[in-house]
Amino acid sequence: MIRKIIHLDLDAFFCAVEEQLNPSLGGKPFAVGGRPDERGVVASCSYAARLYGVHSAMPTSRALRLCPGLLIVRGRHGVYSKISKQVMEYSYKISPLVEQISIDEAFVDVSDLPDTGQEIARKLQKSINDEMGLPCSIGIASNKLMAKIANDVGKSQARSGVPPNAITDVPAGKEAEFLSPLPVEKLWGVGPKTADHLAKIGITTIGELAQCTELELIREFGKSGVYLYQHSRGIDDSPIVTFHEPKSISQETTFARDVRDEQQLRRTLCDLAEHVGKSLRKEGYSYTTIKIKLRWPDFTTITRQLTLSSPTDQDKQIIDVALLLFGKVWKPGKAVRLLGVGVSGLESHAHQLTLWDNAPKVTKNKENHLQEALDELRERFGQEAIRKASDLPINNHEGNGNQNVKN
């Protein structure tokens, strides 16, 4: 059976939500992101702003140079998340086979429905437009790869300055024909390095890539050559994945100005660790590996990690190890631009243990009960409601040196 896959993409989602909340922003060049004096980055920008060359992931300071009249709006990610869930419910009404890949994108498998892909897409788009007041674009094809590329192409061909609200359909059997004139960068797995490599051997379009044999591409790119061969012909058998097991959970912050103060840096690490721990417990995971990330003012970035002998989900272990690792790499007075804390080696609903294998059972239970109480208080009264300032070590935190730190 030929599959029917829809790729749904909410057009400039954050900005569309902000326009709903503040209609005076309609038609104006504005961006959702951080302030330029705080090293902010553009998270999303209106289509009016894109006419000036502004785009997401651009430093806000550069965006303002390109568009001096650009309005900067602080993001409200809790609001965006809530509205995203409401939008995705429209997809679930159509099919249970929904793969949400970001806050504003999803694949939907509608193969079992009798209507054509275009009919389904028009109904879905109309519901989101009319009932949610949000623009969205949809790609339709026989697989995920082609549905995503179709949507990208449809959005790029829309009239500039306004949300595209496009619907683009690639009929089954026409995949290679649709792909042929497109640049190789449109394919999954073709990043800047692969594109440069292909350009050096005279290949810049997907059609030119499709002229290569599988063996030639394997010789040139190893195992990746198999995917390049298939994708250049529009072949993709990847299924709709309705649940993704997270590999890691992390939190990081970029300081408005470089920080040299040890107490502030350690306090920030503790705050980040508590946020990570809260997310873990909310999702029902424990961890075995703790990782920190530091970025110096020259953008040099380093990471250090340590793996525990047993899984846990407690904040204390994240804080202790994060401070231990920090003490091994940071020198007094050295400026820091960014700090991050993360955990990996996630296990679902694992039994929670302390760092010490021989810890009494009653101690472990007390720690768990204490953490649960802290979580409940912070949930009710805010993250800053409970602070353990006395637990924050200000002195040198080097540890006993008998645990391996891996890069």
Secondary-structure blueprint:
Blueprint: E1 5-10, H1 13-21, E2 30-33, E3 42-45, H2 47-50, H3 60-66, E4 71-73, H4 77-94, E5 98-102, E6 105-109, H5 117-132, E7 136-141, H6 144-156, E8 167-169, H7 175-179, H8 192-200, H9 206-210, H10 214-221, H11 224-231, E9 248-259, H12 262-283, E10 285-295, E11 301-312, H13 315-329, E12 336-344, E13 347-348, H14 361-381
Parallel strand pairs: 2-4, 7-8
Antiparallel strand pairs: 1-6, 1-7, 2-3, 5-6, 9-12, 10-11, 10-12, 10-13
CATH homolog superfamily of the largest domain: Reverse transcriptase/Diguanylate cyclase domain
**CATH fold annotation of the largest domain:** Alpha-Beta Plaits
Q: If you average the pLDDT, what whole number results?
A: 87
Q: What's the N-to-C terminus distance?
A: 48 Å
Helix content: 25-40%
What percentage of amino acids are in beta strands? Answer: 15-25%
Number of domains: 3
Largest sheet: 5 strands, mixed
Radius of gyration: 25 Å
Low-confidence stretches: 350-364, 390-407
How would you classify the helix and strand content by structural class? alpha+beta
Q: Trace the largest sheet across and list its strands.
A: 5-6-1-7-8
Number of helices: 14
Element order, helices and strands?
EHEEHHEHEEHEHEHHHHHEHEEHEEH
CATH class of the largest domain reads Alpha Beta
Under the CATH scheme, the architecture of the largest domain is 2-Layer Sandwich
Number of DSSP E strands: 13
